[in-house]
Amino acid sequence: MDKIVLLENENVALYCYPNDGIVHHVIYKFCFGETFRTLLTKGADAFIQYKCTKWLSDDKSNSVLRQEDVEWGQKNWEGRIINNWKYWALIVPDKVVGKMSMKPLIDRYASLGVEVKLFENSDEALKWLKSLK
Question: 117-133 pLDDT, tens per residue?
């Protein structure tokens, strides 16, 4: 069981690599509200079910995160995975405003013990995550 497709539509995709303990999301266009929350909820469900420790966020095509989505994530998503989350591979948004909106989250999760590494593409990020035990 190498790759499980958990969600795939015109806005987002969500995959799990159970053998490698990775949840991987891809945002194809600006993602907010219910779409964002469904993505993170299903990701957390898989993270827990498959005992994952790694998350790959391909946010290259996303824009700025809305404050209400950030707050929702901290209240409803973070607590579900933070105790087991060790590594975060992140492809930051192309847009400058999107990059800036990710900085506080990078700092937050790094301060909580998650090793964060930035990448240009998913292939490099996935390779790094798969190399970790």
Answer: 999 999 999 999 999 98
Token match 């790694």: residue? Answer: 54
Summarize pLDDT for 54-108 with one digit per residue, the tens.
999 999 999 888 999 999 999 999 999 999 999 999 998 888 777 888 899 999 9
Distance (Å, whole) CA 127 – CA 131: 6
pTM here?
A: 0.95
Determine the structural domain holding residue 96 and report its residue range. Answer: 4-131
Decide: 116 and 86 in contact? Cβ < 8 Å: no
CATH of the domain at 108: 3.30.750.24
Q: Which pLDDT score is estimated for 28?
A: 96
How many domains, the chain? Answer: 1
